[in-house]
Design brief:
By secondary structure, this protein is an alpha+beta fold. 34% of the residues lie in helices and 30% in strands.
Length: 237
């Protein structure tokens, strides 16, 4: 795990107790609304145990993208990883796998990851993001409202990463709130252009309008930075 960017992680002395109370005998749990002042904030809690409980999903390996030297690299946490650990995770995919090779996956805009031993047989990993973490695919979960559009947005980000010098470093360094604002701003243009915003049966479109309104008022600096990020990368809708 050496080399992961740990700058600006901050302190959270009660995280392990909070995460332990969520996980109980579960293999993972997603928690939304963790901060009333930051309604988009999300936490994903994962438990890696010495022995499977056979009661839920029993993760053995946690895989995610993390900033490292101005780039985004894949990293793993398992029961043999050095503990405790604190660092940042990057935008993209989080995946957990069990002993049978079955997986559950999420999409995220990035945030803080912490891992520590809860007891002699359980390691707890907490992914905290000020932006939504959305269920993507998996053995024991469905899809969330924004998953498909987030996946498409992340796919479009790969174009400047491949062809624009400095694009990957800029994305890796971006605050998750800024990247989320960029996503919502892009989606607002795309949904409006297709005239689907007027359709009452489009929950995603309604969510985009509501989030754009909220973010403009509550996160004006992040909203402005998100728009600038889109322009700089040339991926805006």
């Amino acid at each position: 795990m050496t080399g992961i960017d740990v700058t600006d992680v901050g302190d959270d002395p009660g995280w392990l107790e909070r995460a332990g109370s969520v996980i109980h005998d579960l293999g993972f749990s997603i928690v939304t609304g963790v901060d009333r002042h930051d309604p988009a904030a999300t936490e994903l809690v994962v438990a890696v145990r010495e022995s499977p409980t056979l009661r839920h999903f029993d993760p053995e390996v946690v895989d995610f993208w993390a900033p490292e030297g101005g780039r985004s690299r894949t990293h793993e946490i398992d029961r043999d990883s050095d503990m405790p650990f604190t660092g940042r995770f990057a935008w993209g995919r989080i995946s957990i796998a069990d002993r049978l090779g079955l997986t559950n996956q999420w999409l995220t805009f990035g945030g803080t990851v912490r891992a520590a031993a809860l007891d002699g047989g359980t390691t707890v990993i907490l992914f905290h993001s000020p932006a939504p973490i959305q269920r993507w695919s998996g053995h024991s979960q469905g899809l969330d409202l924004m998953t498909a559009e987030m996946g498409a947005f992340f796919g479009r980000l790969m174009v400047p990463i491949d062809f624009t010098p400095g694009a990957e470093g800029r994305l890796v360094a971006a605050d998750p709130r800024v990247l989320y604002c960029a996503f919502i701003a892009d989606a607002l243009v795309r949904e409006g252009r297709s005239t689907r915003l007027v359709q009452a049966d489009r929950p995603f479109a309604g969510h985009v309008v509501a989030e754009a309104r909220r973010l403009r008022a509550a996160e004006p600096a992040a909203w402005a930075d998100g728009g600038e990020l889109l322009r700089a990368l040339g991926v805006g809708g």
